[in-house]
Amino acid sequence: MRIHDHYELDFGREDVVLVHRTDRSGAGGHPVYSDDTGIVLAEISDQGEVRMLASGGSQDLPGRVRARPVQPH
């Protein structure tokens, strides 16, 4: 799998968020992706592994999230 500029993050139960690549890297050295609000942040590896990142102090981060690459609209 290669690194993409846009992903859909699937949280289950039809809860899907579109994120785009930022200029930041996460602790694992992989790109950080954000939704348009900046609230949803995720580090996504070239293998499609997702690590959610907190954007605020009291966020409850989901455990299992799937990333699907998408083409920008």
From TrEMBL:
InterPro entries linked: DUF6296
Chain segments carrying region Disordered: 54-73
Name recorded for this polypeptide: DUF2283 domain-containing protein
Source organism of this protein record: Streptomyces gobitricini
